[in-house]
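Researcher: I'd like a structural prediction for the single chain below. Treat it as a standalone chain; there are no partners to consider.
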Amino acid sequence: MRASGGAVLGAAGGLTSLLDEINRRGLQG
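Model: Treating it as a single chain, here is the predicted structure.
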């Protein structure tokens, strides 16, 4: 359970970083 939870949190963190990068590229045009 703990390992699965950590994997979920890690995936969520990676997704957040990816979305942030996309947003930055969008602002730059």
